[in-house]
Amino acid sequence: MNSPRTIVGQNVRKVEGVKLVTGGPAFTDDIQLPGLLCGKILPSPYAHARIKRIDTTKARALPGVHAVLTYKDVPRVPHTTAGQAWPEPSPYDTYLLDSKVRFVGDRVAAVAAESRAIAEKALRLIEVEYDVLPAVLEIEQAMAPGVAIIHDEPDSTGIHDASRNIAGYILREIGNVDEGFRESDRIFEREYRTQRQQHCSLEPHIAISWLDGDGRLVIRTSTQVPFHSRRQVAMILQIPVSRIHVIKPRMGGGFGGKQEMLLEDICGALALAARRPVKIEYTREEEFYMARTRHPQILRMKMGVKRDGTILASQLTVLATTGAYGSHSTTVQGNTGSKVLPLYRAEHMRFECHVVYTNTPVAGAFRGYGCPQGFFAQECLVDEIAHELGVDPVEFHRRNVIRLGDIDRLSAQLGEGKAGLPRVIRSCSLPECLDRGAAAIGWTSKRKALPAAGHLKRGVGMACTMQGSGIAGIDWASAFLKMNEDGAFFLQVGAADVGGGADTVLAQIAAETLGVSLDKIVITSGDTDTTPFDVGAYASSTTIISGGAVKKAAEKVREQVLRMAAKMLDTPVENLTCGDNRVSTVGKSATMTQIALHAMYKEKTQIMDGASHFNTDSPPPFCATFAEVEVDTQTGKVRVLHMATAVDPGVAINPAQAEGQVEGAVAQGLGYALTEELLLDDAGRPLNANFLDYKIFGAKDMPKLTTILVETDEPLGPYGAKSISEVPINGPAPAIANAIFHAIGVRFRKLPIRPEDVLRALREKETAADDQSL
Amino acid sequence: MFDTVEAFYRPGTVREALRLLQNGKNRARFVAGGTDLVVEADRSTRILIDITRAGLSYIRRKGQACVIGATTTMATIENSPAIRALAGGILARAAATCGSVQIRNMATLGGNLANGSPAADTATPLLALDAEVVLADARGRRRIPLTEFYSGPRKTKTLLVEVAIPVPPRGARWSFQKLGRTEDDISLVNAAAGLQLDSKGRAKWVRIALGAVAPTPIRAVNAEKLLLGRKVDRSTLAEVCDEVEREVRPITDVRASAEYRREMCRVLVGRALQECAAGTGCSL
Amino acid sequence: MKTMEVRLHVNGEPKQWTIAPGDLLLDVLRREGYFGVKRGCEAGECGACTVLLNGQPINSCLKFAAQAEGADVLTIEGLAHGDTLDPLQEAFLDHGAVQCGFCTPAMILNAKALLDRKPHPSEEEVREALAGTFCRCTGFRKPVEAVLAAARGSAR
Hints:
The structure holds three protein chains of three kinds. By secondary structure, chain A is an alpha+beta fold.
């Protein structure tokens, strides 16, 4: 029976909100442990080298040092650090510690000491002789004949072709693009380049590890993937999974950077070696180049269209680098094809991608997961096509974008490392997103003529994007509920709230299903001892998959509650409803408290149950992004005046939190478009591993933000929800590039779009115009 | 970090501070706001001498002239009515761009100048204002022009104690321009200009100062001379900016290329002089 | 190891710390259990370590603990009165301005310092007050709205 919703759809306060606004101890570092040691990693100064000799004698002898580890001291177990379901589709090309280093920052050794100062001194006392090898730094050089082989070790597996530095290769086609291009009236082809972006979570990576009283290895860590981490640490340290306990406290951001088993293995190894608790916390500098980044890509996008603008064929060819190790190498790039091309209803699509190793910082998961790169290329090209054909971009999108009821067949080819499942679009409000986003930015009037004040030129641009909600057939979650005497329910989920509000949303789903108020749900999450399995927070899966498990578990528990109440009230179950912390029928009711006491002390039974859940499809959220920019043609600076984002997230379980996700994603997208890039010198050393020179948008940089939720009802999601946390990051870069074109008539196909680039392009345009007028 | 520091002093006088510096040999350093020193994290430091209690936090008017103690914070300067009224407020405006609120509550004028960064935002307006600095050492105090402070040899065992700003020319107009990558940023280029016009609208007195485009903040003296006696019109501005371009020696670094900085010198100086000429800065 | 004594007030309570001369205020505060003061960059860029020192926001990662001698330090832990939250804290909760919460103490303290000297700031002034605190989660819109709402005296 469908009753009006009381909690789902409400802007309830975050369940952990009070703790956060009062600064209560909530994050990984917010504990004091007796005997805690400081762990530090010795990073490689070279981009590519063999360790010829490593002598830790002096370091070990330093008073206060309790453990020093090199490759000689630990098991050699090839693995991936990618937080993915087993068996992970990423190459097993990484080692806890190795005798070869493959990027500046790669692990050489690790120490645990009584203070940070002693640990740093110990690192300085480790003597290393390197056999420096030629470094492969340029993405376009990686496959060239004669170039150094980065993964020449015999025991790594899953690498497509190590001899040519190819970590992964993808080729998928539906229809026949050559035929499609033949049938096209116009063909457009362009090359685009995207950069190394870093997550910049305000809380750096951190792990604390110790042996508990039973000799089990405890790891308290800021991770999006507690269960994957546990499994991987077990494999690497050769300890049974059940002898490891991973705890995820509140996290200070992740954005994909923590969808990784990054510090847990080395921290656990140090704790085992030292027999004392060990904390490893990355400094901000280490966070920039020794953690993960977005995959830089070179994209060649080709589209064939009919005269009226109908897209017949689209082809995307990508050369990406995964850095020194293949974490998420094929899956991120797989998304660049599978989530991007099917936005349009072209009959013919082809995606081909080489993912190469380079001796550079390791790339991994980052919000959007391959989509920001792909949509930059596609949405910029589409804008160019629309312009050439004299069609308004919004209209062009309306004609060509995927619709309700459509089937995306490219997804069937590109699952997470294996054949995926076809995607059916069961909910879609993209047309309305286009309308409302366009209205919010003032599209119609501003496309015609914008006020130009001398050297300041304004323009508007847009982009459409989509994502997924969970990985079909692979992402799964479980939830467990048990009832307490006061009518409150403990909800235990393996889900990992990264800070976006997952715990609150899951509690809302449970409360709604059980008919109780939100304060009657006490949620525990992300603890491998006390919560059931969940793949973790990635692929925009928590609301739809973990939420699906919560709803199932809550429905089962509601059944038990109703049957108990039926006995108590002597009424058939069909006549009972849950709501308002009680079970009621006409004329009588029992409170949840009464039911609990009856169950526990009369019937002597614990009302409890759990459920697991996965989907066989991944319903896309949709997004229309509109940007208004002002270009200073004297300095080249691009000021973003307004970003309007209209999103179809399915049903928004908590609209305020959902809006917050949009706005944060847009902020990261703005940096991706205009200011962010991790730069390396010609020896592969980071040049700007700090906030002074890696520029993210601050409070004064942010434009006016308009956030529009255009809700739909998704059959595969709990209460109709899909997802929202990634999709809004895909639109800003192309929308801004397109707006800049509208403002000054120059196309930028390389990110970030820096003032120098704008100025140079304006000068070139001037010169070309002068030449023409001669 | 600073685990090697053995002693932390907070002297109450400049004399005491200098004595401690002398005794510390080469391992003692002055600290005020700490916003440069802590980031530098020089591991050879053994003794820290906090000078924020040595009586150097003040802003005093001396008629139309002004003296500012070296440990006066950017926030104090930014909010001081006296500094806001001085020379179109360019020094207040520059102080207001020296990082975030938190930084400005800590960072000091002396630190901004003495740490020698060519991008120091307060240096540029101070050069345009013909400021002098008072240096104290074991022998006593002496006063030198800020230009000499930057062009002379590096001074050791010396403490910058005060900045003195002489009376600006009557009726002069002022401008401060700064270019960064984001709203809060170290300067890629900054520029300060002062301009006094005669009754016919010709430049009678000119100052053009630039930061982040040479090893130290500089005055574009040739460009200044070029403008003297001329009206600030389009062609004159172009010539002046050409000259500025010749006087700067910017570098390419991770923030910007030398070519871009050179081009931005033209743009910022052009904007600064136009602002002065249009009287959009307030005159004295 | 050489040590020295520092006497100050933290959240209204008198404190006497034994510190190393080179100790930074951030490290000492966290060591003393003030976990609301965060370590984000140790270079004065991200602002997560913000505390109010004599009412003024500063980056505690750049302040030597010895320099806090005699000072009044306010951390986020000192803002609420028992169970009663400060209007800023209420506003942040009501406006969805808290996501991961790592920057939240710093944002709230910076906002408090602003409202203490300017009870009715403009949006521009609020953004200036928050500009020294990085947030990677919110895009700043809801935090700015929360501060303006708190200034208006209404939590929602």
